[in-house]
Specification:
The protein has two helices and seven strands; from the N terminus they run βββββααββ. The protein has 131 residues and is of the alpha+beta class. The strands form two sheets. Strands 1, 2, 3, 4 and 5 form a five-stranded antiparallel β-sheet that branches. The protein has a two-stranded antiparallel sheet with strand order 6-7. The longest helix has 21 residues.
Length: 131
């Protein structure tokens, strides 16, 4: 499930948008999560900034029962991430951030902020005003 996405404000208008996204889930008495940095490589095209640098509390086990190193686990984590709808969540957060930037630049009151989705396929229909 999507736990959150952060959009970093660009330091220069010519630089791409970047940020982090966090996903996680529960199984029995355990919880697991994975987080990674992303970058907008072109308008509407979001990619993992560094596929070898995912942060997770997962411990992946090899064929001999050994715990895989971060380098050995990276292809497996990328396979998991590839199956998530993460780019749509990042795009949603990026569009919201850009709307807020436009409103700050014009001095207009920002629009009501839509709460992010929680869980696969679920939508939070609530709105909260931004102060």
């Amino acid at each position: 499930m999507h736990l959150g996405t952060h959009v970093a404000p660009p330091l220069n208008p010519d630089w791409p948008y970047t940020g982090q996204t966090v996903w996680g889930g529960r199984a029995a008495d355990s919880a697991a999560g994975v987080s990674w940095d992303w970058i907008e490589v072109a308008q509407g095209v979001i990619a993992i900034a560094d596929p070898m640098m995912m942060i997770t509390n997962l411990r992946l086990i090899g064929n001999e029962g050994e715990v895989l190193t971060a380098h050995e686990a990276a292809p497996h984590l990328n396979g998991i991430v590839h199956g998530l709808p993460w780019q749509a969540e990042v795009q949603r957060a990026l569009e919201e951030s850009q709307r807020e930037e436009r409103h700050r630049a014009t001095g207009d009151a920002p629009p009501a902020r839509r709460l992010g989705s929680r869980g696969a396929g679920s939508r939070d229909s609530g709105f909260i005003p931004l102060a």
